[in-house]
Amino acid sequence: MKLQKENKFKQMIITSLSKAAIVAGISILGFTFFPNFMNMINTKVSSQKQTEIVKNAINPNYQEINENVNLDENYVTVNQNKYDFQKLRQTNQNIKAIIEGSCFEGGYYPIVETKNQDEMNYYLYHSVDNQESSLGAIFTDYNTNENSQIQRIWGHNFHNGDSTMFTKLANICQNQEAYDSTIGSDNSLKLYTENDEYDLDVVACIINNPLTQHIGTYDDQNEFLIDMNNVINSSLIKTNVEINPNDEIIILTTCTNLGSSNDPNNRISVYCKKNKVLTKEITQNKTL
After folding, report:
1. Per-domain residue ranges of the chain
2. What is the number of alpha carbons within 13 Å of residue 229 lying toward its C-beta?
3. What three-state secondary structure class fits 25?
4. Are 77 and 164 spatial neighbours (Cβ–Cβ below 8 Å)?
5. 253-275 residue pLDDT tens
6. Domain 50-283 falls in which CATH fold?
7. CA of 185: how far to CAs of 84, 176, 179, 188, 205, in Å?
């Protein structure tokens, strides 16, 4: 009888310790998983809100008109903006452009302009509507502006395989097959400013320290061509886009999935050639 009581007591202790270990394990997992889960929710909500801001600014009368449309005396062509930038600036005065592409969640994101390093640091952790968020915003490098021959735009890579910010763009442009079957075939990358619309044709994709790349405007166009040829020769993918001395380049830069995000050499830069698109609105009853 005494032995049975001792065995029962030992079993109770073992059961209690097992339950305690399970509770402790769940608590540890909770401390680890819950913040990550909430961060994921925050990122998703922030991303959807930013795309909604863009969606609400689309001109309802905008139409993409084929360049080869035949116009007669009853029609006139005028410039037309796809996005209402006055409405966009109600959210943030610094919204400078919209970037579109099949590689972006929702199809598009706003781009904010920065004027100094402090503003760049701010938009790393604040969304376009100035809410604190790990999503941040897509923003221009303050060392360049819309008149720069080479302009850099920064965005986050969340390493999760989805289309948030520059995540999918980075994955696609590191793999020739993935690029060819997506951006390379649908030509969906576009940039919209208040007055102009551009196709962004991918030229190359490299992994390097972005601070080693000349940005701004070149005094010597031969130097520009030499730099661009070096980039093309180092590219992870090959495209058929040709570079001319007066071309303008947009560099879309983010982290890679390789190594530490604190390593300045662990950055992927997608070089895109800006091609201005003539937008048209066809109106009947042309008048003098």
Report:
1. 50-283
2. 8
3. helix
4. no
5. 998 766 556 666 668 999 999 99
6. Sortase; Chain: A; (2.40.260)
7. 29, 12, 8, 8, 16
